[in-house]
Amino acid sequence: MITLTGPLKIWSNDEGSSHFMSVPAELSDEIRAAAFAGPRGFGSVRVEATIDDVTWRTSVFPSKSTGGYFLPVKIDVCRRAGISAGDDVTVRLELV
User: Fold this and answer.
1) Nearest Cα to Cα of residue 91 among 29, 35, 31, 21
2) Tell me, what's the pLDDT at 39?
3) Using CA atoms, how far apart are residues 9 and 1, in angstroms rounded to an integer?
4) Nearest CA among 93, 58, 88, 62 for reference residue 74
5) What is the DSSP letter of 65?
6) What are phi and psi of 56, to 5 degrees?
7) What total of structural domains would you count in the chain?
8) Cα separation of 18 and 79, whole Å?
9) Which of 1, 60, 79, 81 lies at a CB distance of 3.0 to 4.6 Å from 69, suitable for a disulfide?
10) Could you give the CA distance from residue 5 to residue 53 in angstroms, rounded to a whole number?
11) Is the dihedral of CA 10, 13, 16, 22 positive or negative?
């Protein structure tokens, strides 16, 4: 299991916006190993993520700029967990 704490960020373009968290490169060894063992589209790796008592399944995606991964966080998850962009959030990731 990977546990990290960091800011919930927002990414925007002309088509809309989405929330995400960055998984630093130094916490990404287990994810990289899973990506290598079972390659998926865009280098993604399936995870079960938990913030407080809110758990959901999604994928993390490689970040070329940081060498780590990014975790998309759906707006529904933000609402249920009571978090918003700029909040420091602790998330637990388990590879599935």
Assistant:
1) 21
2) 61
3) 22
4) 58
5) T
6) -150, 160
7) 1
8) 13
9) 60
10) 15
11) negative
CA dihedral over 91, 43, 25, 87, signed as positive or negative:
negative
Percent of the chain with pLDDT over 70: 93
Q: What is the pLDDT of residue 38?
A: 66
Per the structure block, which two tokens stand in for 56? Answer: 């959901």
Q: Write the secondary structure of the chain as one string of H (helix), E (strand) and C (coil).
A: CEEEEEECEEEEECCEEEEEEEECHHHCHHHHHHHHHCCCHHHCEEEEEEECCEEEEEEEEECCCCCCEEEEECHHHHHHHCCCCCCEEEEEEEEC
42 HSE (CA, 13 A, CB side): 11
Structure-block tokens of residue 11: 């990414």
Q: pTM for the whole thing? A: 0.86
Look up the CATH number of the domain holding residue 43.
2.40.30.100
Domain hosting residue 35, numbered range: 2-95
Q: Which two tokens stand for residue 7?
A: 């800011």
Q: Are strands 9-13 and 54-62 parallel, antiparallel or unpaired?
A: unpaired
